# Entry
Amino acid sequence: MTYARPGFFTARVFNPMLSLLAGRLGLNFRGAQVLSVQGRKSGEWRSIPVNPLRHAGQRYLVAPRGETEWVRNLRVSRTARLTFGGKTELVRVEEVQDRDKPPVLRAYLEQWALETARFFHGARADSPDAELARVAPQHPVFRILS
# Structure
């Protein structure tokens, strides 16, 4: 699985700013929230802004950059915190199998293609299911259970 490491501006300026604005102040930037996951080795809580997706009556977390640290930590802990406007929700998750990802990836790209399309290697919201299935293994998806 691949990982598209964020550049300096994203990691050191944009993500901290978005975490402050959405997580603490509750300013809605297209649904952004702050995901906090306990480190699988250190046990420390790590936070990153994410775009939770609502699709077909479910909520999902999609990792457009691939095998991120938050993905690795979430696979171990299966629990996380989502924060918006200073309010925190404890959630449990289950990972979605590759074969079930295409409709979720399509919905994700419909909402956030402007910010994330470059990570999907040519697949778009209007791509055939086969194209979305091709990129599915490169993008972990978690269904939020609670």
